[in-house]
Amino acid sequence: MNSYDVAIIGSGPGGYVAAIRCAQLGMKTALIEKYATLGGTCLNVGCIPSKALLDSSHHYDDAVKHFEEHGIEIPGDIKVNLEKMIGRKQAVVDQTTGGIDFLMKKNNIDVYQGLGSFKDATHILITGDETTEIQAKNTIIATGSKPSKLPFIELDKERIITSTEALKLKEIPKHMIVIGGGVIGLELGQVYRRLGAEVTVVEYLDRIIPNMDAALSKELNKVFKKAKFKMQMSHKVTAVERVGDEVIVKAENKKGEEVEFKGDYCLISVGRSAYTEGLNVEALGIKLDNRGRVEVNAQLQTTAPNIYAIGDVIKGNMLAHKAEEEGIFVAETIAGQKPHIDYNLIPGVVYTWPEVAAVGKTEEELKEAGVAYKSGSFPMRALGRSRASMDTDGFVKILADKKTDEILGVHMIGARCADLIAEAVTAMEFRASAEDVSRMSHAHPTYAEAIKEAALAATEDRALHM
After folding, report:
1. In a domain, 155, yes or no
2. Would you call 316 helix, strand, or coil by DSSP?
3. Parent domain of 305
4. Within 10 A of 204 (CB to CB), how many other CB atoms are there?
């Protein structure tokens, strides 16, 4: 029987990063993955493939809508080859997951393919083509999440689908109904809207991206309506039925009236739930909360002290980079170091176009907590760089403490905000004030100038270019 200092169950961003860090710290490490490829949901059917399709569809959208204005003339009709687009997406996935294979070999990490389950606190059974047993002093549960579904909806994975199937459709929908106005539904909805599908978003709450600052939700909703999305807020879905190649969605609007939507595809995008099936955690007395997530303490230990859990399988935002930070945290904890994670400074991003990104407290959270704050905003349309690229939607908003001027939250929507948010995270990690950021030189012309201008607006209400 092979023995290890650490075994990790699950090879998503949290799991494989934890494995690398454990190996770097001198621990003999095993990584267990039930699927044939490493990388988990993120690399195989999540972050990476969805961004590949978003980029491809963005190129098409630009060619159809903007190339002529840029002085680029393409003779004949511009057409979508969906099969080729999906093929390119898969090539990106294959290259990325292959990179994880390389990293495991480079770091001398033993990889086991099969379903990992606990025999006891120090022994793991791996069931694949054959059953293998290994011994581990410590184990990290990194089994991630799966798409949630409403109990009355039967997924056929052909017309009534999840994000997994939406990444490999063989045709462009005529009318895609998206149930859920969160990140995944909006991103994939935008992919198919760009390619020519009619898209209707049906959301239970009164706004999209409800966990982000309300100003971001309002601006993104405006952008989507301009792109001719049909946005149906405050609608409670009551039934989803397939009749031949048609999907019928019934819902109650905020007046309590029944309404009906008909399309040829329905994407169920109502969040994700922790995945613990087959682990046999019950045999160890490891506790799960009322949402099926593994309960952990501040050190991310379960009720079995040598077993840890990270990523989507525990509480908190389901983000790949959160899982990575937790994987490193646990590896260093096991090694006797004193790492830390500031969950307030883990950014959230929506990869629509314009992109949406945020870190820290929202305006609603500050109001609820009774924190005295000031706010400064700057519109992207006032930037020379935005006008040059024709990306004028959006703004940057900075929230700062009214007395100390320390930045408490940064919320942005616009071109390249997924990258720009790192500046805000850096500033807040060092507890910068809005004035600190306003006095830093930002290259001109860039999108990042909006951050400087918003900081000026928050400091003394003296943005220069508005």
Report:
1. no
2. coil
3. 2-146+273-341
4. 17
**DSSP secondary structure string, 89-128?**
HHHHHHHHHHHHHHHHHHTT-EEEESEEEEEETTEEEEES
| Strand 355-360, strand 407-414: pairing | antiparallel
Which residues, at least 6 apart from 290, have a Cβ–Cβ distance to it below 8 Å? none
Q: What is the pLDDT of residues 310-368, one digit of tens each?
A: 999 999 999 999 999 999 999 999 999 999 999 999 999 999 999 999 999 999 999 99
Supply angle C-alpha 212, 216, 218, rounded to 5.
115
| 465 domain-assigned | no
Contact criterion met (CB below 8 Å) for 318 and 312: yes
* 29 lies in the same domain as 169: no
Count of structural domains, the chain: 3
Under 8 Å between Cβ of 336 and 327: no
Which residues are tagged catalytic? Answer: 444
Contact 378, 396 (CB under 8 A): yes
Contact predicate 38/22, CB 8 Å: no
Alpha helices in 27-107 (DSSP H): 40-45, 47-65, 82-106
Report the predicted TM-score, pTM, of the whole model to 2 decimal places. 0.96
> Does residue 461 carry a pLDDT above 90?
no
| C-alpha–C-alpha distance, residues 383 and 91, integer Å | 36
Which of 224, 241, 270 is the last residue before a domain boundary?
270
Q: How confident is the model at residue 228 (pLDDT cuts 50, 70, 90)?
A: very high
For the chain, first and last CA: distance in Å?
69
| CB-CB contact of 282 with 118 (8 Å) | no
Q: What confidence category does residue 126 fall into, taking pLDDT thresholds of 50, 70 and 90? A: very high
Judgement on whether residues 116 and 17 belong to the same structural domain of the protein: yes
Model confidence band, residue 252 (pLDDT cutoffs 50, 70, 90) = very high
Instruction: Note whether 272 and 291 are within 8 A (CB).
Output: no
* 251 and 367, same domain (yes or no): no
Angle of helix 320-334 versus helix 13-24 axis, rounded to 10: 30
Residues in the chain, overall count: 466
Q: In this predicted structure, what is the pLDDT of residue 464?
A: 87
